[in-house]
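Worked Example 4.2. Consider the chain below.
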Amino acid sequence: MERDIPISAAADRLDTTPRMLRYRESLGLLPVTKEPPTGRGHRHRRFSEADLRTVSAGLELERHYDVTPAALAFALRVLAEPAAMARVRAYGERLGRLTPPPARALDFDQQKALRLLGRR
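Applying the procedure from the previous section yields the following structure tokens:
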């Protein structure tokens, strides 16, 4: 039977600190836990092998792309929130780092039809 390990042991296995794991958790970079609170409403986070593999994958992304945990958390937010993605894309286009998506023929036809109807 696989046993979950406490945060201190998880930090040792991941070559980081419990404080950094808590920081990553506050950024949304740790798998969601379904553990009920213990004691006076506090919960003591425990890590499964799957949790350790997931956190390890995030740490590898940070090292490979030389980004901070906050940058990785923002990247995930951009991918998850269409409005954030649109604003970042628009900024990238203004900087000239991203090219605007090509106009689609259907969009052109729709605009033409609206003009013919006298609407903008």
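The two ends are 65 Å apart (CA to CA). The first strand starts at residue 5 and ends at 6. Compare this with Example 4.1 before moving on.
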